[in-house]
Amino acid sequence: MPKATMILDTAAMERALTRIAHEIAERNDHSAEVALVGIHRGGVFLARRLAGLLSGIWSQTVPVGSMDIGMHRDDLDRQPAPAMLPTVIPFDVTGKTVILVDDVLFSGRTIRAALDAIMDLGRPKRIQLAVLIDRGHRELPIKADFVGKNVPTAMDERICARFREEGCPDEVTLEKKGGA
Amino acid sequence: MSWNRKHLLDIQSLTAEEIVTVLDTARAFKAVGERAIKKVPALRGKTVVNLFVEPSTRTRISFELAAQRLTADVINFSAEASSLKKGETLKDTARNLEALNADIIVMRHSASGAPHFLARFLHASVVNAGDGAHEHPTQALLDAFTVREKKGRIAGLNVTILGDILYSRVARSNIWALTKLGAKVTLCGPATLVPKVFEQMGCRVTYNVEEAIAEADIINLLRIQHERQRKSMFPGIGEYTSLFGLTKARLARTKPDALIMHPGPINRGVEIDSEIADSNRSVILDQVTNGLAVRMAVLFLINGGKGPQEVAA
Predict the structure, then answer these.
(1) Inter-chain CB proximity A77 and B27 less than 8 Å
(2) To the nearest 10°, the Cα dihedral for B143, B144, B146, B147?
(3) Helices of type H across chain B
(4) Per-residue pLDDT tens over the stretch B245-289
(5) Is residue B247 helix, strand or coil?
């Protein structure tokens, strides 16, 4: 059983999200234009929490949607079809500042797919990216605007993000792949 | 989530988990059809051939639109205009289509087992769009999707399938799917068209239509398949309607939330009263909408590559 290294515990995750929410508020003067889109699954939990924090900062509700990028992946015929969850975007993205939210930024391919999926829904004014963990190893020219924590990793390591919405305590750990 | 199949040939060989995977995937694809841009790039660069050796309009259009919404290229191939009329064998026709690098062949054929035959030697994926009186898997999947969407569940529901069971591939696929998912299936119709042997598939057979529909949560009506009946199986249309048709009087004695389904094309005034077909109890047009989502899901799933746990389809 390989040892898992704690990257973020419950309190640290909460602090990181609070900081990201304030950075989003600082960067975006026009709060009415901001909408959040979480990428299934972890990103959806995070987007809902950030929307709650931003609603408090701005004293207005912030629209939040969820997106499954499976239909836009670039490796669909290289592996078994991924499980699909419905994409629910209950607002018009055209003219909005859409903030994509994901738990872990790695190769950047998920974000590339998400950008295409968003563009299929309309023409946002701009798109920003918020991630809880940036673990490096980008394969595409993609960079996050808001990062909870930068974590240098090796390719044979795995970042595991768990959330209270799934019935686990909020935490992010670094584990060796294929060990357990 | 479990899907490792290259083909969709029948419901009989699917597990309940695999059926649920298709239904869950179809939920995501139904949302695509409700957007301004009803298209995703999931099958970009793939070629889908609709090989319809037996005539069909709605199933072919549904598969065609499903493939287009996944950004695949689609070729429609119908028996009337094909070299099958000139004496080419099915195997040669399919091999020719594969030589054009077709990735998925969607086939309807009047012979039971024809898609299974193709799947044995083709490298392309094969989807059964109806083979003789054997199976029509995507119809059963869209019916199950519609039931789950409207009722929130399938397990424990009473589903009555009423009409021509003997010649119906829709009935066979529905029986497999519904019983695997835990529904209680009752079959009813003229004794000549509903042989007792269907009880071996795990359903109940009755010839008393009042009793068959009284406790039903879902009533699935089937058309009389005149084109498949080699001899007259019942005296006449008028008698069928009076004995087994869903009339307003019969509907009044069903559960108030029982839903009416029909795979189409409907024959108004024969198996279903015209007003019932247009009423809010009927989900016939929801079935058509859901059929598109289910077929997108099926094409998406079988297009998936081989995983480490790949098993022979």
Answers:
(1) no
(2) 120
(3) 16-32, 58-69, 90-99, 114-121, 137-151, 169-180, 209-214, 237-244, 248-251, 274-277, 284-303
(4) 999 999 999 999 999 999 999 999 999 999 999 999 999 999 999
(5) coil
Q: Of how many residues is chain A composed?
A: 180
In the predicted model, what is the mean pLDDT of chain B? 92
- Interface contact B30, partner A, CB < 8 A: yes
A71:B39 CB<8 A = no
The answer to whether residue B239 scores a pLDDT higher than 50 is yes
Is A76–B42 a contact, with Cβ atoms under 8 angstroms apart? yes
Distances (CA, A) of B14 to B4, B19, B132, B177: 11, 7, 19, 8
Question: What gap in Å lies between CA A52 and CA A59, rounded to an integer?
Answer: 10
Which one of A39, A41, A78, A84 makes the best mutation probe of the B interface by having the most chain B beta carbons within 10 Å?
Answer: A84
Nearest-CA residue of chain B relative to A87?
A: B28
pTM: predicted TM-score of the whole model, two decimal places: 0.90
Interface contact B60, partner A, CB < 8 A: no
Cα first-last separation, chain B: 16
- Cα-atom radius of gyration of chain B, to the nearest Å? 19
